[in-house]
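[User] Could I get a sequence and structure tokens?

[Assistant]
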Amino acid sequence: MSPKILTVSIALAFSGAASLLFPQETAQAAPAINNVAKIKPADLTLEQVFRAKTYAGQAARHIQFSKDGRYLAYTWNPFGENGFDLYVHDTQTGETKRITSPALMKTYDAPEDWERFDKKAKQKEKEEAERQAKAEAHAAYLRGEKVNLMQWEEAALEEVKRELAEKKARDAAKKAEVDAEAAREKAAAAAAKTGTASVAKNDSDKKDEKKDAKDDKAKEIWELRDELKKKLEKEKLKPSDLYPGVDALVWANKKNELIFQYRGDLFRLNAVDGKIERLTQTDKTERIVAYQADDNGYIYMDEKRLFNASFSSSAIRQLNRELIHPDDADKKYRIANTVLSEDKQWMAISAEAPDAKPESGKPTPPAERQVEIMNYSERFATAKKVSREVSDDKRKILATALYIRRVGDASARQPQPVFTNDGGDVWFEMSPVSWAKDGSRYTFSTWEREKDLLRIYVGKAEEGAKPQMVLERRGNVGHEVVNVLAPRFTPDSKQLIAVLDEQGYRQPYVIDVSNGSARQILKGDFEAHSIIGFSEDSKSMFVLANKDDFAAMNAYKVDLTTGDMKAIGQAGDFHRNSAVTESGDKLASMAGQWSSRPELKLVDITKTKSVTLTQSHDPQWNAIDLQRPERFSYTNRHGDKIQAYVFKPAGLSSSDHRPAIVYTYGGPLNDRHIVETDSFQQTAYMFGMYMAAKHGYVTVAVDPRGHSNYGRKFGDANWEQVGKPQTEDLEDLAKYMQKNLGVDGKRIGLTGWSFGGFQTQYTMYTSPDTFAAGIAGAGPTEWENYNSWYSGRTIGKTERSKPNLRKYSLLPLTAGLKKPLMLVHGMQDPNVLYQDTVNVYRALLENGKETLVDLFLDPDGEHGMGGAVKAKAWHKKYEAYFLQHLGKAK
């Protein structure tokens, strides 16, 4: 069914303190258009697949239910609209109100702001249209058609000439006005002196006339191009140039109302009658934190300070006054973050002590190094510096302290910290504090990498009382569990739940605070590290898990006593950004799969019914959606099941000898993997579909060992043998493809990006006969130069005294290359430095591989390119490269 949308009228009635009341005008949302004609495979082009304006709409954000579960608020906008506006869905009536819109929010802003928003929105549309038109024109030109490829530059130069002429006219008018005033002054002075008003022109006047005559000479074409370049740089779009919409929202504790943020100010919405009241209007950015416990006011933050404000009074009170220290204190902590208990009676204040030089008291510079990235867009190259911390850098972690303070009298004496860490040259991480619902206790976790030491603490709501360590794990606790550990209490405040990796998969456990034991809740080998919420009675928990399908992430209701799981969403859907009502009867989630692109879905858990609330994507996607991939798995040499998907060309037979392309990533990173049922990744999916439909290639995307979300065995496979297990799995895949997918074993190409760029190179160097050609994008080739937060956790054990990760460098392996390899990189990449590609390219040349290696660079591109080289361009290069080296399908 299509959701009902209540359109907010622009005719607004003002009442009270900038209040607005919306008439309830109902309109049906436009139905999805599924009858768009399909393009014939032979006519499909990369200009259509990777058009300038993406087919994908934006995903709903800030998905939150009201406390009673009746209303669902979220921010979103239909395809083609800028910003994220606020919507509220009534689960009882089935109606959805669009609360904010550009027309409405314009009434709260200065006219100059909206002149910029409107101008920049038109600029964005024009740039996308021109980029698409240029791409189509260049393709036509290469087909031999007569096309004026200079028409856009000619039009832009004419615009520059017009603007220069207008500027010159304005300057001339201004100068004439100034000159006239000066002449009058001279005349008046002369008249006073000689009795006559006549004044002769002096030498400076004659020089100005000569200068004007020189300026009248038309600029040459190269000068106009320089002016155009300056204009384009000056007018380059920034995120702040476009209408942003709503930034965040918080529901009241009992009332059906919420507070939302818009451009740094706070607004109050009554969800029942649609009334909006502006709460703040300042030059500073305010962030909403929560309602007061009785809903009679609200709590908000600026950068670090926490304020309490009342709806009925103009008085504002700061809750977390800055910490006070004696002059001779060893460490002078400053507030970094504050977390309030739900009853608003207690604060957990996290603080850091700046590392100061004893002689001056000024903070010392950060320990991290600065690396230079060259910019070649100007007449002469320039360099910009970016921060970098690599594995052998000495760390400078700030000393940390945690204070528990009662919300109340600001004149009370400051309590002592309940927890401290000295920082220094260590890897120390501390999770945010989480309060029990009744405000009686709090919990947090710490991780010390060098010691392989994981701890969970629980403390009482009492000033100065030290928290108790309730769980300690030493040794290999699973390198990917740290980011998802997130200890928290059930709503009855009795049970402590944390995500651990005790049995090889990240799952929630009940922590017994009396003896430090951990009870596994779920049964089975799957990942379930995202806890959505709990039922009010604390008997049920809601999680996202890949229990039934490693490529999907469904929502499940879990019995906390038995561990029994009940799937909530549709089989095959991948759920993200989910929320559940406090009563546990409704779920809202961004969910979808290849056959039905992700949308915001509302699920009635008790009735097992769902409704789709958004329609986000361009219906024109249906024109190029020519094929869907097929899932498959194969068993590697070690008995592990490896997940993959394949685009099969029409008429494929297992006896064929087709060319093929394999896309891989291969690296561990939180929950990232390639084979995801809702992922339309540019190369793996979009380009894979294109090559199968257009050229008859078999295209495969695979998740070898090393990937996340398949359990610790996969995630840890990369440790101190980086690239090796992935290569073994890719070798086994190549054999499987020859036997089962009608592939010519001598015509298989390999490609990947980032870690996948590293993996492509490693495999081409160490297993040189497996793949016939490779394209490696932005791969880290020297792990000792990569970010230590990643390399020290996933690559191998590091040493501060020397760059020991150099033993995993690709440079010595380049001698093994036998087949063509293209290296791709954005030269402005601040993540994987462009120097990694330069250095491996040099090593390849030194090893005599000059006839095998090619370079394809984006001079302005960063890690995902996107400078001079957009997605269409680099996939055109991929297409030509693979057709050249793998040949046509037969």
